[in-house]
């Protein structure tokens, strides 16, 4: 099915100057970027985005890292976009990520793991709405 998913290029990957290289991975896999912007998240924005993890032991480090520098946030559209983006990213822990995935190529650790992607269509809808209004989505089908 034609889907949308939400993606973040995290501060470590922005600092490594690989935004374009990562966008090329999305496009080469048949995903289209239908919205995109650079933002430096506030503590409140990062805490709100990751609210489901607020009780996890890594929450403080996660918020601290995600506010340490600018990120790119984007909406990707295409067939099975949620799963396709997760395959492009590889496992959350780069030590477990398959060769050729974003995490294997660009991530240093599970905390600084280069990118985020929605885990299901429902979370994608919520995460897209957290950063973009409907009129900011330039879908091919609009
Ligand atoms: P992300 O997909 O952005 O969602 C939450 C982030 O928390 C995750 O990627 C990891 O970067 C980070 N994290 C740190 N430790 C863990 C862990 N043990 N399990 C899951 N995520 C973790």
UniProtKB/TrEMBL annotation:
The EC number(s) this enzyme carries: 2.7.4.6
Designated name of the protein? Nucleoside diphosphate kinase
Query: Needs which cofactor?
Result: Mg(2+)
Enzyme active site? 116 (pros-phosphohistidine intermediate)
Query: Any idea what job this protein has?
Result: Major role in the synthesis of nucleoside triphosphates other than ATP. The ATP gamma phosphate is transferred to the NDP beta phosphate via a ping-pong mechanism, using a phosphorylated active-site intermediate.
Quote the SUPFAM superfamilies the UniProt record gives.
Answer: Nucleoside diphosphate kinase, NDK
The record's catalysed reaction(s) read: a ribonucleoside 5'-diphosphate + ATP = a ribonucleoside 5'-triphosphate + ADP; a 2'-deoxyribonucleoside 5'-diphosphate + ATP = a 2'-deoxyribonucleoside 5'-triphosphate + ADP
One annotated GO molecular function is:
nucleoside diphosphate kinase activity
Origin species, per record, is: Psychrosphaera saromensis
SMART domains in UniProt: NDK
InterPro entries associated with the record: NDK-like_dom, NDK-like_dom_sf, Nucleoside_diP_kinase, Nucleoside_diP_kinase_AS
